């Protein structure tokens, strides 16, 4: 009988913990996310969508900007999953590399800008809980995540663009 009671208490306890976690989000991170998303949308409207579009097209001319600044802006302003729509500014041969860069950046940005990918927030919060328990600041870790993330997306973008280019040339040769 004690075994069944333990299972029942553990089962309901799991939902009680979930409720407490949810309330922590409702009173903590969710209001901050709403304010951040509102501020980003207001900034885009203030600058003007056409200006933002022109800037994006200029950013894609050079591979270093195309796979660092451009994915950062896409993830920051449009958040996940809308950030992938920035690929519309690129020629077909560069779209796979942009997607690879953007999808690889949605986690590293979360530490500094949680509005960019709230779905990944649970991963960051797990890491953050351990760091704060040690009495350490989250700022340096968030910056390191961001810097390493930018390096990784640059490398992934370059490699994926190279592979895509080779595959497209191979397909043209085989078709002829």
From TrEMBL:
Transmembrane segments: 22-44, 64-87, 141-163
InterPro entries xrefs: PTS_IID_sorb (IPR004699)
Any one biological process term the GO annotation gives: phosphoenolpyruvate-dependent sugar phosphotransferase system
One Pfam assignment: EII-GUT
Keyword annotations: Membrane, Transmembrane, Transmembrane helix
GO cellular component, one term: membrane
Record-given protein name: PTS sorbitol transporter subunit IIC
The organism's taxonomic lineage, starting at the top: Bacteria, Bacillati, Bacillota, Bacilli, Bacillales
